[in-house]
Write a structure and sequence with these properties.
The chain has 79 residues and is mainly α. The chain has a domain of 55 residues. Helix 3 runs antiparallel to helix 4. The chain is elongated.
């Protein structure tokens, strides 16, 4: 499979250590897992591995952004 863009370590490159440390927090781990799962689904949709209607792709991208915002909030607390 091709490289999946928007992985957390790419989205938050300056906070790689914090991302690793936060994975010990079950709430953060669940959030990160949800982000990764959705990000990979979006990638499959964007590359037409899974063909979907445009509105479904857009909804998935919005949800991914919401998850990313929640992750950024966690990161801001440990900074």
């Amino acid at each position: 499979m091709t490289h999946t863009p928007h992985e957390l370590h790419e989205e938050f490159p300056q906070q790689a250590a914090a991302l690793t440390a936060l994975k010990a927090d079950p709430r953060f781990a669940k959030l990160a897992d949800a982000y990764h799962e959705l990000n990979r689904a979006v990638h499959r949709m964007e590359t037409n591995i899974e063909a979907v209607a445009d509105h479904i792709l857009e909804d998935a991208k919005k949800k991914r952004l919401e998850l990313k915002d929640e992750i950024a909030t966690f990161l801001a607390r440990v900074a």
